[in-house]
Amino acid sequence: MRSVALLMMSSVLVTSAWACDRPPLGDYDWVGCIEDGVSISYQGVKHGLVDVTGDALIAPKYRKIHRLGTDEFGVSNGEKWGVIDRLGRVILPMEYDYLLLHDDSYYEIIKEGRYGMMHHGQMIIQPKYGSLSDVNGLIVAMERRTEGRYGNYGLIDHHDRVILPFEYDKIFGFGEYFVVGKGDRVQLLDANLQVVDQFEDADRSYHDYLPVKRGGRWGVIDKSRKQIIPFMYDEIFIGDEGLFPVEQDGRWEVVDIRNQIVADFDYDFIFGFNDGVAVIKKDDRYGYINTDGKLLMQFNHSLRHGFYHGLAEVVVYGRDANGDEMALYGVTDKSGKLIIPPKYHGISMSYFDASKGIGIEINKKHGMLDRSGEPMIDVLYDKPFFFHQGRAEVSKDGRGFYIDEQGRQIGGSWLINEKACRHIQVGQQFEVVIFFGSTIPMEVMSVDV
C-alpha cells in the first residue's frame, strides 16, 4: 500500500533543481523540499507548513522554521526560538536562544549560553551545561560555572544522571571506547567504563586510528586497541588515507599503517592527508603533496585550509595604499592551478556547498563565484551566505531577505537584529555562525603569485 500511495502523490509534486520533491508553489513565494509529508512554506517574510498538495497546515506567521524531527519544528520570531508540532501546537514557548538537532528524536535547547536537551517533546535535560555531545549512547557534558567560565567535562545519561564525575579535561569517543583525560593521564574506557589502557595524552580523531602518547613519544592505535605505529615520534597526524605524517628529531616523513616510510622530505611541517592531499610547509610557505609524495603545487603562496571538494583556499600578502600588509585570498585545485586568483579580501570556504559556488568578500561585501571562477551572485551583501534548497538568506543596508541562485529576491525583507549574529558552541568546538572582516583598500602594491 505504501508504494501505491507514493505513486499517487507523485502527480502533485514538483521536482526542483535541488533534486527534491516540492508541493505546488501556489500563492507562496517559496516552498521547501517535502520530508515526512510536510514542506516549509514562505510568503512575504513569514514561514509556515504545507502538506504535499500545497494545502496549509500552518499559515505563514513565523520568521523562521527549522526541522527538529518528523513531527517537531523549531520556530522563531527573529529573536527567540520555540518548538511546535506539525499542527501548530506549542511544545516549547519562544524563549530560547537557539536549537540544535542531534538526530530525529533528540535536540539541544540553548538559553543564556546554557545547553539542555529535548526528546519527543519532553525536556530530559534542563539548560544548565556549557556544551552537550553524544558519545556511544551517553552524553559528554561540560560544566558551566556561575561566573561564566567553562568547567570540566563529565558523562551523563539521557536522564541527566551523572555517570562520570565532572573532573576531566577532555572526554571523547573512539570506536566503542571512551577517551577521558585529566592532567598528564589519559585513559581508554570500555562500554562498562572500565579502564582498558592508559596513556600520557591522546588527540581527538575522526578516523579509524587514534594518536596516543606514551614515554614522551607519540604512536597510533586502531579501534581494536592494536598498536599500529610504535611510540617513537615527536609529532604525528591522522589523515583519511591510511597515511601518517610524522616528525622525529626535526625531520618529517610520511609512513603507512605498517610504519613503512612512504616519503621523507626536507619540510618544516606536514599536515594530515585529506581528500587525497596533504598540506606541507617550508619557510612560511605552503604547498601540497599527494599520497605518493609527489609535489602538486610549488611554494608560491600560503595556505588557508585543506582541500574540500577538490578545492583549497590560498592567500598571498601585499601592501595596501597606506603601506600596511594585507592578505588577498583565492582558490586552487589539486593540480596547483589557480581557479580563482588571490585578489579577494575573503573566501568563505566553510559557508557554501562547493558543488554550487564559492563565497567571496570585497570591502566587507559578499558575493559568490561558481567553481570555474565566473560570477554567480554579485558582491552586494553584508555577510557570507550559502544556498539550501535553492535559496540563501542575505542582508543588505540593514535589511534581511532571501535570494534564489540567480540573485533574485524571494518574498519581502525585514529589519536586521544584530543580536542574531553569534557564536554557537557545538560539543567541544566552536562554530562561527557569522564572521565580519575589516575594510581594506583595494590597491595592492606588490603581490607575487
* Proportion of residues in β-strands: over 45%
Amount of helix: under 10%
**Largest sheet geometry:** 7 strands, antiparallel
CATH class of the domain at 304-449: Mainly Beta
What name does CATH use for the topology of the domain at 304-449?
Lipocalin
Strand order of the largest sheet: 31-32-33-34-35-36-37
Number of helices: 1
Which structural class do you get from the secondary structure elements? Answer: mainly beta
Please identify, by name, the CATH architecture of the domain at 304-449.
Beta Barrel
What's the rounded overall pLDDT mean? Answer: 82
pLDDT under 50 segments (min length 5)? 1-17, 419-449
What Rg, in angstroms, do the CA atoms define?
Answer: 25 Å
Tell me how many strands there are.
46
Tell me the overall shape.
Answer: globular
**Distance between the terminal alpha carbons, to the nearest Å?**
63 Å
In short:
With about 450 residues, the chain is mostly beta strands. A 7-stranded antiparallel β-sheet has the order 31-32-33-34-35-36-37, with no helix packed on it.
Characterise this structure:
The protein has 449 residues and is mainly beta. Among the domains are: 1-62, no CATH class; 304-449, Lipocalin. 2% of the residues lie in helices and 57% in strands. Strand 31 (269-274) and strand 32 form a beta hairpin. InterPro entries: WG_beta_rep. This is WG repeat-containing protein. Residues 1-19 form the signal peptide. It comes from Moraxella bovoculi.
List keywords for this structure.
about 450 residues; mainly beta; Lipocalin; about 0% helix; disordered C terminus
